Amino acid sequence: MILIFGLTPHFVLTKLFLWQPLTYLFFHADFYHILMNLFVLWMFGCEMERYLGSREFVRFFFITGAGAGLLSLLAHPFSSIPTIGASGAIYGILLAYGSLFPERRVYLYFFIPIKVKYFVAGLFGLAFLSAFRSAGSPVDNVAHLGGGLFAFLYLKGLLSWRNIYQLSRSWRAKRSRKNFRVYEKKTRPRDDDYWIN
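RE: above sequence
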């Protein structure tokens, strides 16, 4: 099931398993993996859902998760190792929470208070360093960074359905204006075309 529904870049590109950038979010390696993802989803996702609304939050979750998968696909296009887990979407939620509520405090290891902006910056710094340092690691840190990147783009309004629709509409309008130019026939003015006062 993981080979079919996990994100395997080789299968997406050669066998066209185009559902994998969405279905890989629902599979996890072990109980600890899903427990940590669900804990962070509960801890930060509840507030984000109240802020965005349920429909928008679900849309945000899937866009950041699929974006994390697409960035992982671009980073390792010929890999036959499947990527599983919702960590990319979780990192997207963390970045959004850190952007919207930077001064709130969380307790690191349940007793060290730290501001959310520093906590999120530290997590993304570790993911960035790990993405280039650990080649044989079982953790796909590029997917974590991809979730954050797509969350940033979403918060800036570049990935909202309304903006995408408006951009496509203006592009189509420009295209149709080029196709339907009106040309006037230039004629010489006659002598009786003027008003005489």
